[in-house]
Amino acid sequence: MTISLTGFMGCGKSSIGRLFCERTGSRFIDLDDWIEGRQERRIKEIFATEGEAAFRMMEVSALKDILDTGERQQGTEGFTVLSLGGGTLTTPEAVSIVRANTFCIYLRACTDTLVENLYTYPGERPMLGDSQGDRDALRRKIESLMAVRSSIYESSAHAIIDIDGKDYDTVADEILRILADKSLKDSSFAERNNCF
């Protein structure tokens, strides 16, 4: 089974996903890293040379490759955890692929949490432009993007975890509880809910 993690930049998808996989023996895939490996260039460079629309199509192609082929090899616990990019689900085709082939969990964070995380750990985030060096500009950018994205995240997810004030261990525990509560290891449930 593939579990996908969605949410805005800076909500901890990759860190939480890796931690969950270390604890459960599951396989971890970061969609951005996977694309960079296949393209042999950084996402920042893709955005700069080809633009956002081209990158979103690369995401859709990558999702198909990961979920429809041998790339979906499972970990020892039968899970693959796929960390999506913050904007992956802004493409309707990506939403359809994720909903049909994964159990999607939205890691929901308030603006204050996102500002703090993205200001403290900026990284390469083309969608934020130069706003990361200024808290007020960063807040405005997050609020603008979240005005569009929050409803997409919520409607695309099978489950939602609020992460504000929680450490990564706590969130990983909540993912485990959701999987246990929903009996996702039971194939009959997974088949009924299109989680394979």
Description:
The protein is α/β, with parallel strands linked by helices. The protein has helices at about 15-25, 30-40, 45-50, 50-70, 90-100, 110-120, 135-155, 170-180, 185-190; strands at about 1-5, 25-30, 80-85, 105-110, 160. It has a five-stranded parallel beta sheet, sandwiched between helices.
Question: Layout of helices and strands, plus pairs?
Answer:
Elements: E1 2-6, H1 13-24, E2 27-30, H2 31-39, H3 43-50, H4 52-68, E3 80-83, H5 92-101, E4 103-108, H6 111-120, H7 135-156, E5 159-162, H8 168-181, H9 187-192
Parallel strand pairs: 1-3, 1-4, 2-3, 4-5
Helix pairs in contact: 1-8, 2-4, 3-4, 4-5, 6-7
Strand order of the largest sheet: 2-3-1-4-5
Terminal residue distance:
5 Å
Kindly state the percentage of residues in helix.
55-70%
Question: How many distinct beta strands?
Answer: 5
- Quote the beta fraction: 5-15%
Order of secondary-structure elements = EHEHHHEHEHHEHH
Going by helix content, strand content and strand pairing, the class is: alpha/beta
The low-confidence parts are: 187-196
Number of helices: 9
Radius of gyration: 16 Å
Overall geometry: globular
